[in-house]
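Aim 2, interim progress: modelling of the zinc ion-bound target.
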Amino acid sequence: MATREILVIPDKRLRVVSGPVKKIDKDIRALVEDMFETMYAAPGIGLAAIQIGVPQRVVTMDLAKKDDPKEPQVFINPEIVSRSAEASAYEEGCLSIPEYYEEVARPSAVKVRYLDLDGKQREVEATGLLATCLQHEIDHLNGVLFIDHISRLKRDMVMKKFKKAAKRTDGDKPLARDDEPSHHIG
Ligand SMILES: [Zn+2]
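Predicted structure of the complex, ligand included:
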């Protein structure tokens, strides 16, 4: 098991549409283990494989409260088969958009079909936090982020902030390199 780096916007890989898992083999099991370790370390309650750069339709989740026993759940090739007409709003955050939270309205109930780690097809009628989290993670598999569901003005603001931060990180590198050669001149 290993903790993997979580991609942060504006990383373009977060916009990739992930492909379906064809076979649940030892590579997928290893991926799932890494995803849980990464998710628990973050800490987060849900993670899509693309958030660690793997474009496969795999989601891990644990909605247990902090001091309760762990409840790890795996959803492979999850698919929303029905949505309620009624919507509800939750304040969402995302490990790929650190420290930004905004209210998002989504269908309050969804029925999701998926495979478990043994390749068995299952269905869950999700409400509340599970419904929100499943829709958020399935969005990731389609290259969609929760900021796509908020106003354009707010989205532009948050994208600008993260683009600036990414540029700053890149900008620091040449400076550090410029400083070094001075020791070697002559
Ligand atoms: Zn997310």
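Strands lie at 46-48, 58-61, 73-83, 87-94, 97-107, 109-115, 121-127. The helical segments are 26-41, 128-141, 152-179.
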